[in-house]
Design a protein that fits this description.
By secondary structure, this protein is α+β, with helices and mostly antiparallel strands. Helices cover 16% and strands 31% of the residues. It contains two helices and ten strands. The strands form three sheets. Strands 6-7-8-9-10 form a five-stranded mixed β-barrel. A three-stranded antiparallel beta sheet has the order 3-4-5, with no helix packed on it. The chain is elongated, with a radius of gyration of 34 Å. The chain starts with a strand and ends with a strand. 16% of the residues are buried. The mean pLDDT is 79.
Length: 179
């Protein structure tokens, strides 16, 4: 303020309610700025992907050298040990237990020579079997009854509570829950 040509310092009194409200607001704003969360971390690296050319070579090796038709644009998570079986006479099934995925890969039947069927235990209608499933660090097994004779590596079962489900017969005659 000017008074007769001289400058007088302006004094603010904290007794005024308006000044107190402004001071509290500024203090609160400073506290919010100081307590803001740290910037987000960089996103995690994308999961590793399975090499499609290697998968095609594995399917072809399983099919006895028959050409496999695998789309090179295919994107699936990396699988440490995919399992292969015949889904049909001209289709190879590729399964991964972790992360879980299944692919059906057509093969050129003119060149494919399906290997001799492996000896599997004959599971007949009414037989009781132990069905297993599991993952990393856990497993579960129940006894179930075959509803009909095994069809290749597929089996229709009825559980203890009467619920119906499918299972697969894998190497060694082990029966596992179908996915």
């Amino acid at each position: 303020m000017r008074s007769q040509g001289k400058l007088r310092p302006m004094h603010l009194s904290l007794k005024s309610p308006a000044v107190r409200h402004i001071a509290i607001a500024v203090a609160g704003l400073c506290a919010l700025i100081a307590a803001r969360p740290a910037p987000a971390q960089l996103p995690a690296a994308p999961p590793a992907l399975h090499d499609v050319a290697a998968l095609k070579a594995q399917v072809q090796a399983f099919a006895g050298g028959a050409p496999a038709r695998v789309d090179p644009r295919l994107v699936v998570p990396r699988c440490p040990a995919p399992a292969f079986s015949w889904a049909r006479a001209d289709v190879v099934r590729a399964d991964c237990a972790g992360p879980v995925w299944t692919l059906y890969v057509p093969v050129d039947q003119a060149v494919a020579a399906q290997p001799a069927p492996r000896a599997r235990p004959a599971i007949r209608r009414g037989d009781r079997v132990l069905v297993e499933t599991g993952g990393p660090g856990w497993s579960v097994a129940i006894e179930a009854e075959a509803e009909r004779d095994a069809d290749g590596d597929r089996l229709a079962l009825k559980g203890p509570a009467g619920r119906r489900f499918s299972a697969r017969i894998v190497d060694g005659g082990k029966v596992v829950l179908a996915r």
